[in-house]
């Protein structure tokens, strides 16, 4: 029986994690899990964790590890019969260790994109806050300028997507991501992709995953994903 497949995608702001994880989910039938979307759902539902997380996000800070872990690991417990790709978690070594103590990952994709490309992409990134759907005036513009394709609601830009905020975000990302990348490299499951265009990187990601992901339709076994946390 084919085993389940669990993966994580990592990369600095604007590297294309959301764009590529959507493509992977559609192409391979994986469930896409996004820590940012999950936080937004909790904020919209006014849960205790959502209210707490909002106080950090409003200041452009990462949500504390213990809040993220408590938010996400029970969600993974519901996924023992699903293959998934996680975007946006883990973001710190503590989160990676919490994840490792509950799930064994098959593969980690790390995106290595030049600063100038990140800056250019983020300056044109427009977001539908409620859903997290992402647009780009050049790469994937909305049907109606400034409006979300599905809801018709207004699109916004994040303050910390502005060039002046990017340098600090990028430095912070590199500081916190390095030990995680080293950890997954030592586990032999890290695959790094470099480039300036998702459409040129995609064929390589697609062919790697085609060799790693169990065939569609084969019966999937359950695979525990929590051993207490
Ligand atoms: N794993 C995490 N740990 C801590 N905070 C997180 C985590 N994931 C998301 N957050 C918080 O939620 C916010 C929104 O996350 P989301 O991934 O949607 O946007 P983002 O951080 O701007 O990502 P990117 O710019 O890389 O697309 C983040 O800025 C961060 O404050
Ligand atoms: O080849 C690409 C991939 C993405 N984007 C845009 O760049 C921004 C960042 O992409 P995404 O949100 O997927 O990156 P993330 O921050 O999730 O890594 C978004 O406006 C995308 O539409 C782009 O212009 N070209």
Automatic annotation (TrEMBL):
Segments for region (LID): 124-161
Residues of the signal peptide: none
Protein residues bound to a ribonucleoside 5'-triphosphate: 14-19, 125, 134-135, 198
EC number: 2.7.4.10, 2.7.4.6
Keyword Nucleotide-binding: yes
GO BP: ADP biosynthetic process; AMP metabolic process; ATP metabolic process; GTP metabolic process
GO terms of molecular function: AMP kinase activity; ATP binding; GTP binding; nucleoside diphosphate kinase activity; nucleoside triphosphate adenylate kinase activity
Ranges where the Adenylate kinase active site lid domain occurs: 125-160
Primary enzyme class: transferase
Domain of life per record: Eukaryota
Keyword Lipid biosynthesis: no
Pfam families associated with the record: ADK (PF00406), ADK_lid (PF05191)
Domain comment, as recorded: Consists of three domains, a large central CORE domain and two small peripheral domains, NMPbind and LID, which undergo movements during catalysis. The LID domain closes over the site of phosphoryl transfer upon GTP/ATP binding. Assembling and dissambling the active center during each catalytic cycle provides an effective means to prevent GTP/ATP hydrolysis.
Oligomeric form and interacting partners: Monomer.
Family: Belongs to the adenylate kinase family. AK3 subfamily.
Protein name: Adenylate kinase 4, mitochondrial
């Amino acid at each position: 029986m084919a085993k389940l497949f669990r993966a994580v995608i990592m990369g600095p702001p604007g590297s294309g994690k959301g764009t590529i994880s959507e493509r992977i989910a559609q192409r391979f039938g994986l469930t896409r899990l996004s820590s940012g979307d999950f936080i937004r759902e909790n904020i919209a539902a006014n849960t205790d964790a959502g209210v707490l997380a909002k106080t950090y996000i409003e200041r452009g800070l990462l949500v504390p590890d213990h809040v993220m872990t408590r938010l996400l690991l029970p969600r993974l417990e519901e996924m023992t019969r699903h293959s998934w790709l996680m975007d946006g978690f883990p973001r710190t070594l503590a989160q990676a260790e919490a994840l490792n103590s509950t799930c064994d990952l098959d593969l980690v994709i790390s995106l290595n994109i030049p600063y100038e490309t990140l800056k250019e992409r983020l300056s044109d990134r427009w977001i539908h806050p409620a859903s997290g759907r992402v647009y780009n005036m050049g790469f994937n513009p909305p049907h109606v300028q400034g409006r979300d394709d599905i809801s018709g609601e207004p699109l916004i830009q994040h303050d910390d997507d502005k060039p002046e905020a990017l340098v600090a975000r990028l430095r912070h990302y590199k500081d916190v991501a390095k030990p995680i990348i080293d950890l997954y490299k030592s586990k032999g499951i890290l695959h790094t992709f470099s480039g300036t265009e998702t459409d040129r990187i995609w064929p390589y990601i697609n062919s790697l995953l085609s060799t790693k992901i169990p065939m569609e339709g084969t019966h999937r076994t359950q695979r525990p994903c929590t051993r207490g946390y």
